[in-house]
Every structure is written in C-alpha cells, then in structure tokens.
UniProtKB/TrEMBL annotation:
Organism, scientific name: Actinoplanes derwentensis
Superkingdom of origin organism: Bacteria
Gene Ontology MF, one: oxidoreductase activity
Cross-referenced Pfam families: ADH_N, ADH_zinc_N
UniProt cross-references to CDD domains, sorted A to Z: MDR7
InterPro entries: ADH-like_C, ADH-like_N, ER, GroES-like_sf, NAD(P)-bd_dom_sf, Zinc_ADH-like
Domain called Enoyl reductase (ER): residue spans: 10-334
SUPFAM superfamilies from the UniProt entry: GroES-like (SSF50129), NAD(P)-binding Rossmann-fold domains (SSF51735)
Name listed for the protein in its UniProt record: NADPH:quinone reductase
Amino acid sequence: MRAWKLDDFGFDNLHLYDDVPVPVPGPGEILVKVAAAALNYRDKALVEGIYAPEKMPKGLIPVADFAGSVAALGEGVTKFAVGDRVTSHFYLDWIDGPWRESYTDRQTGGPLDGGLAEYAVLTEAAAMSTPAHLSDEGAATLPIAALTPWFAMREYGDIGIGDTVLVQGTGGVSVFATQIATALGARVIGTSSSDDKLKRIRELGATDTINYRTTPDWAAAALELTGGEGVDMVIDVVGGTGLTDSVRAVKGSGMVAVVGFLDGQTSPLDLMSVIWRQARVQGIAVGHVRAFERLLRFVGEHRIRPVVDSVFDLEDAREAYERLNQGPFGKVVIKIA
C-alpha cells in the first residue's frame, strides 16, 4: 500500500512509500480502507519533533484522524461488518472515565500508526460509525477537532442556553467550537486578526467578534461585551503568554479550557488572576469514546457540517501540512482514495 512514513523528525524526513505492507487486524481489531485523513496542529508538531518526541518511533505513519470503510475483520469483532463506514477515535483504550497516562501509549498517528496511508488498523472499540449525512472527508475532521471543544463544553463544563463562550481563532478546533456552542444555544464571541475570517465565523453562529490585532486587549473587550461580567468559558488554542488574558476574560468561577499551544508549551500565568476569579484552568486532551459517541449523535441531530478549508491528494501531503501552517479557516483534509 501507499503510505507516508516519518523516518526521523523534520519534514525532510517525511516520505511517501509505495510498498508498505498492508497491516493485518488482530483479535478485536478492524482493517480500515482509508478514504480521507484530516490534519491537526498536533500532526505538524509531531513531525517537527515538539510533540512527545520520546514516544514516537522512527518509521511512524502519521496523522491521527481518518475515516473510511471496513475492509477486514479481526477475530471476535461483532460491532462492524465489512463495508461499514467508520471514523477513527484518537485513543484506542480510553473508553470512559478519568484520563490515564497509559492512554498516551495507544494514540493513532503517534505512537501508533495513523491514517496517512491507504489502510489502517483500529480496535473495534475505537472505531465509530460515521454519521450518515457526512462524507468521509467531513467525518475525518471530527475525532480531535470536534471532540476537543465538545469535551470541554459538555464533559468538563455544562454549556447551554444563556452561557457565553469565547473562541480563539478560526482553525479547525475553533470553527467546531463555534458550531457546537451555537447549536447548544450559547452566545459565542469569536476572535481573529482577520476581519474576513471574523465575518465568516459570524456566519457560523458567532454573535460578537473581536479583532485582536486592532484590539490587542481582547480580554477587556470581552469583559465589555458581557457587561463587565466575563464569559463562562474560553476555548484557548494559543496557550503561552496569552493564558493570563484568557483568565482575565472569564467570569467568577469560569473555565479556561486549554486545548492548544500555538504560542508555546509554557506559560507565565498570573496566579492572582486565577485566585481572585476562582477560575478553573482545565487542560483538554481530546476525550474518551463515550463522549465521542454523544458528539456524533449531536452532530447528526443538528446536521452540523464540518468546514473544510482545502482538500489535497495523498501524494500532496506536504502541501497539506504547509496549508495548515498558513492558518486555514476550518480543516485541511487529505484524500486517500
């Protein structure tokens, strides 16, 4: 089969091979004929060697999120039949309950092989039935980018009618956060440095927007938009030095859901802001299978359609990563078959 493999860290070491053996599903596993894979910032950081490099084997097939159809069944599989459409889940073993360190050893797209190939293996438990209204290209965008904000809003939080969510940026997670929060009945404040992207995020449901380039103190602007009270939740995809601003923007006992690290993996957080607001700074590392099942039902019921910025062929995967680096509106997808 054709597959991209990361022979060492760095994009110069990411190569497309034509003769990679097709994996064989073991007991409780399924072989997926991959139709599409979707990029996340994690996938870029992994290639660059800044995402858990100590866990990543040489020769890894990257990209965590993918969708396709069942090509073969391992022994004992009863959940699916050959031909069923399926979507991957990021963690093979996190079915429900609290997160455990051991789950990081069984993640698709690193340390385990991912979906940038014509075939991939999933456990039966970590494969989800694809929503009927979505194409494979649309479904491939869901596992990380949609489940992450859903897990923040509905597992760690209880966002609904009357609540306000501030969403940073207009990448994959941020666009899904806007769509999901809007469908939950919440007010959404979107931020971006681009007025054009802010216009588009309004079309997806954001009621208010802040251009942080022309309004650098966006936290103060968020407070003004909420009558000085603050927002119930910030979906923080930036991290780094801006984390204190996210805390400033939340109301008393509000939550900052830390889901990304675009500005860096460390932060000089002002603890007094956290203490005075009694704010909750909650790390989000995607979510478990039970939450993904709930999300997929919600996506189906509300007919949420992923926003796909661009689609690339398998042989053009490098260009897809470059598009991700440029800051797409929504998701970058790679068509496999």
